[in-house]
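hey so i finally got around to running both of the ones u sent me last week. sorry it took forever, my laptop kept dying halfway thru and i had to restart like 3 times lol. anyway pasting them below in the order u listed, first the sequence line then the structure token line for each. didnt double check formatting much so if smth looks off just lmk and ill redo it

first one:
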Amino acid sequence: MMDETEEKTPLMNSDSENGYSSTAEQLLKGPINSELTSSRSTPISVPDIKYDPEKKPSAGTRSSSQHSTTNLQSLMHLIKANVGSGIMAMPLAISNAGIVVGTVGILVMGLIATHCMHLLVTCSHYLCEKEGHAYLDFGQVAEVAFKRGPGSMKKFSKAALIVVNVFLNITQFGFCCVYIVFIARNVQEVVEGYSDWKQIIQVHEVLLVILLIPFVIFFCDLKKLSYASMAANVATVIALIVIFQHIVQHTKPANRFPAFTEWSKVPLFFGSAMYAFEGIGVVLPIENKMKTPEDYRGLSGVLTLGMTTVTVLYTAVGFYGYLRYGLDDKPIRGSITLNLPHTWLYTGVKVIYSMAIFCTYGLQFYVPVNIVWPHITSKLKLNRRAAKIGNYIFKTGVVLITFSIAAAIPYLDKFISLVGSVSCASLALIFPPILHIITFWDEKDRFGPCRWHIYKDVLIAILGILGFITGTYTSFDAIVDCFKNPNKLGCKA
């Protein structure tokens, strides 16, 4: 006879319904419990529990997992998930807004992004308690919230799940495209700095793709990716230490810089900042994995401490990077690595950071590919050999698609702003406050005196929508302008 507790084992996430979570959360069950990739929006593994929105199993199985993480491990995961290629664009982000507005803006956006993460965790806890689920991921929170929400919202529950997961996957592919431009641009700088071989960036992207295709085909499995994650983490830490000690030297006086630039550049600042702050995709997987999830929330919790550290780090790199390279004859580039001097030390930094991003490409690439491909095989009903060959062809095709997009948009800073405005703003600023309102719609006492939380959530969502619209438009416009005027300052391709 089946044990009673077995009958109530929570079902979390069927691959056909929500493959993003199941693939993402299993990604790094690798050596020495390295469960996090080295970039933001990176999946964290959780117990293999399936989700069925029609069933209400008992909660409380979280602590039984042998892979549960401590508070310190969770803190490190959160910081690593948020610190990637986006931090290198912070000096340029501040240059688009001004030394005062840009610096304060990063702090404020960090505060709002952290608050939205707390909103998402609060919704997850409440819905798990009400529905009896042990865990819910981002997409599932959206689905269950709409299903329990006002009558007119219930019919959109499946659509909410699909929309959130589509944006999560768009983000992953967007990062892969940015990574190709990032690596190719840094390699181009290294090659041109030490040889007379000068080619357009697309040539370097072609050479990069020649390496990426066998990498994603033959080395893109869970165990090997976990080693790639560790290597990328070490390279990132080394590069950040060397870069930071460089930018704090020989800075210019802050009073020489404009406090505010112009309104037309603010959307570019918004997009770049949101690209860097997009860590909301890992917030729930990290919390779901903790031994003591009650320590995750609160002013002194893991989430607040981790995001405070990330925000301070972003602000410091952006502020000092702007003071170091702002007002120079050459403009601040899309990545601060491109402004570093041509010495062996800083050339080495460009190389190891590019290697870190190369490894991270495989990690970001793995998740959406392993969601889409099973759906294709289920439709085609291929045998094992045909499925294996088809998988190779499919992965090659996806790499070529990301390459084609990267080659078409070789302007790193504009590309970063575009990805940040389109997908990151939606996930970080628009969805969480909307889900918070819908989740607690029938318990309006939870919104505080005069229901001020509703007004606050609406204002945050409006900010996200405005950033989405203006950031996307301005980024596209800047890209088109660079195509029309390739010799314009800041339009090097």
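and the second one:
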Amino acid sequence: MNLEHASSPRVEFDSLSCACKTRMYCRNIVRLIMRFPIFLVTFLVLSILLLSLQESHDVLRKVSTAKSYVLRNARAERELHAGLLLCPHLKRPNQSSIQTLNGYWQYQGSIETEEIIVNSAFFDDRPMLGFSTWIRVLGMAANFSSSGLYCHLWYEDHPNPYVTQAVLNVTGRKKGYRLGKKLFIQYLFSCHLTTVYPLPSHVSLVGNQCDNSSILLPVHRPLRTNPEHEFGVCVPVSFGTIPVPQFVEWIEFLHLLGVTEFNVYDSNMTGMTEVFDYYINRGWLKVFPSPPALNLTGVDGPKFGSAAALNDCMMRNLYRYRLVLVIDFDEVIIPRMHRNYSAMLSYVDSVNNGKELTIGYGFRNTFFFRDMKPDSGQPSHLWTMVHRTRSEVAKYRAAPKSFVDPLQCLSVFNHYCFLPLKPKVRPLYLSVQPTVAVTHHYRLCGFTKAKCKEFFDAGYQDDTALRFKDDLEPRVKVTLKRLEDLRMKQL
């Protein structure tokens, strides 16, 4: 038998079987290919349905605000466009046209017209304002018309300003300061923005809507961040001098109590350069030049800039400080029950049931007059230890000192928050009981002889400050020694 011939049917069957298997495999593939569009279409339809459901959910969830937000954006664009067209002939002031006073303040006006004096401007988008945003300008003004003042807001890459009327808030004493026939009053000038973005780079102020201005202030934007410091000090405009040991004691005492940054606005102080430089290098202190804006007599010149200085300090640190402490070099809020400010304020909050929207904590004043008999047994360079005879605690809101929440305060002054950020939502201002802490004010008695005698006769000893002596004295000694060493090296 021919083996090759005999095996051929097997070969044919195997070939046929393979062909059949191949055809079945191909048919399966074809079926899958034909079904794939169905799967794809089904997948796309389901995806579209899911997206539609999600969009519907978002619309329902945001229906209360979405429409107004869109309308607000459209209206804002129209308002911005209209404001840019109000004074089409105006051009940005060039550097040569900017007028300055004492190299620090910018000035607009003349003897015959309004006078506007300003020193800084800030973008304000604090959460409590909601969608409303502002440019805040700090300064003073006199002799402007009943129509008020106007803001020129300058945007990068745009030749004309956005023009809007300024909102004025008095930030200092209402009676102001008189120079010649003009009455100057301290103001916060607020310029409302129609949009959050873009931000204006500079701002000018004028008396008449389309006048040219000799002011061009850069707009600073405080960055939103978690507070870097729990407590920061803002000192009103400082002038004259203070003995270096007392300044060292003051800053070391407050640092011991929990303050970690200090701001001083220097109106030509004398003899303070070395000690200022020392604390600047330690990272504790910032010093800003603040020469008088007007040639007022006596201390009125420097004091006239205090409102602008304090609010400049607050605005610079809107998000950097949890609380701003406004205080002078001869004052210390000293706890009577606790070792630091954190523990003290936590206790105050617990006693007051932790109420929200606390705009500030006020501490009543008491005088420790330095012309009363000192304690010669204490270190002579420590005012807080030597002078421990005090007056009665002053009445509520009689020259207190305060911790202020910068996120809720529109304008701060020497004693407390002068204006809340939202007048219709008045936060709680807590007057802390004298059993918890009081403000120790170390000063000479500048009242009438009869009034001073009354204070002296009623005075009594208060040893609260001695609780901190063991911690404070070595700190002061070390710093004074270092300052002396630095001085000797420079000889």
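quick thing i noticed on the 2nd:
The first strand starts at residue 99 and ends at 101.
anyway thats it, ttyl
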